[in-house]
Each structure stands twice: as structure tokens, then as C-alpha cells.
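Lab meeting, action items carried over

1. Structure of the two-component assembly. Owner: GW. Status: complete.
Input record:
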Amino acid sequence: MSPEDRKFTQEHEWVMVDPAAAGTAIAGITEYAQDQLGDIVFFELPKVGDAVAHLGKMGEVESVKAVSDLFSPINGTVTEINEKLLDHPELVNEDPFGEGWLIKVAMTDAAELDGLMSSQDYDAFIAGL
Amino acid sequence: MQQGGNRQTEKLLLQRSVPGRVGVVLPGLDVPAQPMPANSLLRNELALPELSEPEVVQYFTGLSLKNFSIDTHFYPLGSCTMKYNPKINDEIAFQAGFAGIHPLQPVEQSQGALELLYKLQGFLGEITGLPAVSLATLAGAHGELGGMLMIRAQHLANGETGRLKVAIPDSAHGTNPASAAMAGFEVVELASDNDGNVDLGALRSVAGPDLAGVMITLPSTLGLFDTNILEVCRIVHEAGGLVYGDGANMNALLGRVKLGDLGFDVCHLNLHKTFSTPHGGGGPGAGPVCCTEQLAPYLAAPMVTQNGDSYDLFTPEKSIGKLSGFHGNFGVLVRAYTYIRTLGDAGIKSISGNAVLSANYMMNALRGVYHLPYDRTCMHEAVFSADFQKERGSSGLEIAKRLLDYGFHAPTMYFPLIVHEALMIEPTESETKETIDAFIQALIDIDREVTEDTELVNNAPHTTPVARLDEAKAARQPDLRWQPEAAD
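Predicted assembly:
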């Protein structure tokens, strides 16, 4: 069961409004994504100040199985990246919905979140994969 | 099993060193002693081991016995075509005239070598139906880069500067998008349909004036013959694009299907795979590029031509230039030529027939035990999914590791990316039915072990020189160089 306090994309990213800063979103990859990837060994994340676009490529993740693209769940500008992942990519395997967040984004339009999948919708989506 | 004495190869030569021990006794000095060079010219910081000759021989022989190779084991590594490499290939390549020739030797002194290259160009042109052939590229991906540069050069020569996109199926080898990107193209991913073919709707949506071409692997990495292939070529050509063929899986088509007849414009061949030259340790390879007469002026240099009774090197008129130092990996080319000459027409055809038969025999024996996401008659390899086993606690990785305990090389795992828990198995044509049966039985036994003793499978391998390696740590904290242990 995916957490209900956030939204999801078909590319297995999650996004939620930062409880500490309205207008800012926190984004990461889902439990399903980390399970499919296997042990993660490297992240290439965007830089602070970079513009990211809904479902646009924003970086890469490398696991022992493969290198995969990361897609932004939302439009906006990167305000912070999770620096810890550069030395400890395994945080995403261990806690993808918490300590393993990827980036914070100043959202262009917070209403975009309404267009993304709810946790129930996402769980149904991955059940069908 | 613990080996006797100090033969454990885990102990490095330096760790076995005993001060004063020698491997060779030099005769006494029988000339006047000369003064030593100045200290600045002498090095004494090198830690060289002091050992006897038998110790050194035992050490290296012990290491060699740990080799896993086609000459010792069945090697069903999907997509890699680890077939037997006939020894006659090496015998011919070791002949002094081939092994000792220098690439800068004058053409007049190299006529035999050039004749071999010229005839090999002709054979490969005949096999692919793409008559113009350059042998200069050194690997599959190198051939891909050459082919993509040729496509770019032809579009530019035609003034078509807006053709910037190359479409590549989502099942492709990762080298395809990398090669297209290196040649300056933007890569567009093409979805596969439910049968594993290129999705024609997806292709039509990108077939426009900005399409430079497509890169197609036939059979695909799913081990399937794309039954839409004629339509794929037609759509791309009507849009003004060119069709590149990744020849990685040509073992399935040899002597039966010519890529040129299907509408491909340019392809590469992996001689080290399809034409049985040793590979698997990172090389050496050979990835010749074959193309239509239309694209021939763009081929990489040098090529070999025949003038009357003699042979000469030449650079095609609008060549993309040189992609390697000399004439390609000559030793590999000699082996591939030998292989073709040994087999002849009928033999070449029997390769693909037996490769496809082996794979289908294995696929049918394992159907139901392992999930087949694309359950169709396969070509030279079959892609299973370990989904059934994962539900019981063992993933594809675990099954692959357990196969090592049964004395088989693991199949390719987690590729192609569009198959969950992929196990990609290519038996090739060169193994007997008995070997393939033993491999099938091992996979059936492992499936039973997943149910009865999951831990046995998940902690495998148990019989190899080293047990389960920490792949994540190896990637996160690579330890690439031996260093002396810190002094106490």
C-alpha cells in the first residue's frame, strides 16, 4: 500500500507538498521502483536551479541491474537535492518514501498535483504490471 | 576442496615470496666485473617475489584451472552467442604468414592477406545481401557507430540537414541508442507491441521529415523474428529514412534470410559471435559494416579491391574516414574467413537451423515451469521470466547464481529491460542434446528447490571458488587495484 499523503506517476515517481514550505514539492521514486531496480549504486540528479518538466528526464539512476532515466513528476525549478544520496544511494532502497527523497521543486502550479495518480490508483496500476 | 601445500591460488605470488629463494641459477661471472650504473638509474623499491619455478608454474596453472570457458562448460549466455570456436580457426590464424605480417608491410608483400580480406568482404556481402563491406570496425558497437555516421553523411550529402532523429525499439541493446547519440542523433524510443514486434503505430507517429532512420535488431533481443519487418522497412523508407540492422543475432538467420532482401540499408555483423571467434573477455572483436551500393561510398576506410590479379587497399570516395588504426582486427578476420570456408554453403545454413532448433527445444521443455512473457516460436534464444519463482521467494538473480552450482554458466539476466526478471537463454547450435537436456533438468530442479529450500537457492553459489559477491558494494566502492597490506 503506497502512502496516501502524496501523488504518483506512471514512471514510478512520487510527489508531495513539502509540509515545511507550501509551493514546494518533494519528489522521489516509489517502493515498487526501488524493488524493480535492485541495489542502487549511483544517482545523477539535476542541479539546484534547473528547470524540470512534468515527465521530462531529470536524471539517471544506476542499479546493479541497469541504468534507468528519472522523470520529474511535476513542472518547476529544483530548489534542493538530497545530497546524502551521492554517498549513500542505498537510502532509496531502504526508505524510498522518506530518507530516500530525491529533489525539492518550486512548483510552477500546485494544481498540477490534482492530475496525478492517487495512492489507490497507483497501487491498482502496479498490480496490473 | 582444499588443495595441498601452498597451491591455494588465493595467496598472491608476493605473499608466497621467501627471501633468497630463486627460480633460476645464473652461471658464475666469467668476464671482468663492471661498475654499476649511478644510483639514480637503479630502482630498488619494486617488491618482486622470490620464488622457485615450480611454485610459479603451479600458481598460474591453478589460476587457469579456475577459468570458465566454452572449452570447459556449457555457456548459454543470451545475446552473446557463446558457441564453440573450432580450433582450425586458430590453426590458420597462427600460420606465420598471417600471424607475423605487419600492417605497414607494402601491398606487394601482403597479397595473400589482402586476398583473404577481399574474399571475406565478398562472403559477408553475400550472407547479408548488402554487397559493400568494410572490415575496419573492431566490435559490434563500433560497427553501429560507423553505420550511423554513414547514414548521417548521406543525409547531409543530400542536403537533408533536418533529419536528426533515430528511432530504436525499447527491446534494443543499450549500445544502439549510445551509438546513435554519439553520431549526433536524437534517440526516440519505439514501443514493442504485445507480440514483441515493433509497434507500427508508434513507428508511423515518428516517421516524418526529421527521421534519419531506425535501428532494428533481427531477430529482436526477445529472440523473436519481427513479423512486421517488411512493413517497418517500408514505412521508414517512405518517410525518407534508412534502416540500420544490428547483426548481433545473425546466428538465427545465416544462410536463410538476407537483411538486404528485407529492405535493410546497412548493418554490422559480430564476427566474434556469429562467426565463432573467441570472445567473452572483452575482445578482441570484429564488427564489419555491410551496406547497399547506394551507401557504399561512405564506408569506413580502408577497404580491399581487386585489380586484375592483384589486390589493393582503397578509401571509398566519400568515406566517413578511418575508425581504427589499420585494417581491423586481422586475426579475428582470418578466423571468421576460416569458419566460413570450413562450413561452406550447406554448413552455414545448418548453423541457423540448429541454433533455432536448440532454442525451441529448450523453450518447449521449460514452458510452464518458467514464465514465457512472449510465448511464440522463438529464434536462436528464448527469454523467460522468473516471475513464478519470485512469488515463491527467489528472483532471477538467485536462479542464475544457483545454475553455477550445477556447472552451467548463468544466462543473461534482467535484459531485455521490457521483461520482468528476465532470464535470456541462448543454447547455440554447438551443444549436444544431452548437454541441453542436462541444462533443462537443472532449471527444473532449481524450480523445485525454490519451493523446497529457498535459502539453498538464495545463498548460491556454494561450489564456486568465491561465494556470492556483493555487487552493490563493488559498484559503490570499487576496489580496482591490489595494494600491499598496511604495515603493522
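2. GW to write a short summary for the group page. Key points so far: Residues 345-468 of chain B form a domain with the Aspartate Aminotransferase, domain 1 fold (CATH 3.90.1150.10). The two ends of chain B are 32 Å apart (CA to CA).
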